[in-house]
Amino acid sequence: MGPPPPSATPAGARRVHHRRVPANLTAQYKDAELRLRQATSHDEKVEALREMLALLPKHKGTEKLHADLKKRLAKLEEEREHAARSGSHHVDLGHVRREGAGQWALVGPPNAGKSSLLAALTHAHPEIAEYPFTTHVPQPGMMPFEDVQVQLVDTPAIAPGHVEPFLPALVRGADGVVIVLDVAADDLEASLVGTLDVLLHGHVWPEGRPVPDGASPLVVPRPVLVAANKHDLDDAEGTFSQLAREAVGPGLPFFPVSATRGDGLDGLRPWLFRALRKIRVHTKEPGKKADLGKPFVLPEGAAVEALAALVHQDLAARLKFARVWGHARFDGQQVDRHHVLADGDVVELHA
User: Fold this and answer.
1) Partners of residue 142 on adjacent β-strands
2) CATH at 270
3) Domain boundary among 274, 292, 318
4) What PROSITE patterns does the entry give (predicted)?
């Protein structure tokens, strides 16, 4: 059969090439793809793209799709950074700029005392009232601990049928989560379950608990603790605290505290820093005393070259050796760039 007559193909018409989509995409992937098409906020799009990347089968037939998804995700993240640098009036409530040694999100039900705890631990002055839902937007504050500061972020309350849409993304962006509960509340256990559901929606789960069956492959373990607030209302035997600890169950560190009276806060501060798994390192110049002011903060297991990169971008490439005081075999020990540092070390870098 010969070619169709010229009239069958209108002038200027183009052939339509349909993109071939891999046939073995899972139902979970298709659900994430549907959420991406329906997403209206920046954070919803980023979350859906990340899940699609995690769920996409890895083989020859998905290489182009994988590259396309990564490109789209990179563009969204670049737009966020550009907006932050340019001081755009658009406010992304799901993202609070990290400061200090690390960031903790304070989450929980109405009137549990999250804002009071923030005020007690930091120099922030959030609005505090007896009525629920006083906090409408994230409120950061800096908690001093020895020679560093740790960022705490107060968040809007979590209640049945009332969760701010940006909250799961904010929780995912934090280094850890403090669940603030009212130690004397009748619905403490239900409040805990509702809060953990929000964490799971943000793909975050407590390190000490097994991840539920059917959870997203994007779920990551993070340090999560329970601050059982209003301990000052407890009786002499600590009955409320005992019942609250039983309701919380195993796998979650439990701190009875009082934001108003200060109970338990001295033990909470060091835990919040140590759970970040960070080390503090000071530097010194040859022949001079160590600079014991603000330390450099690095993740546990960081080596000398990571410190050099923090001091100056080019120093890591030019680094020859270093001398270490503190946890070395002897003071001033000469080490190479791969030497692992410890909390409290003093380091002299030689390039």
Assistant:
1) 151
2) 3.40.50.300
3) 274
4) TGS (PS51880)
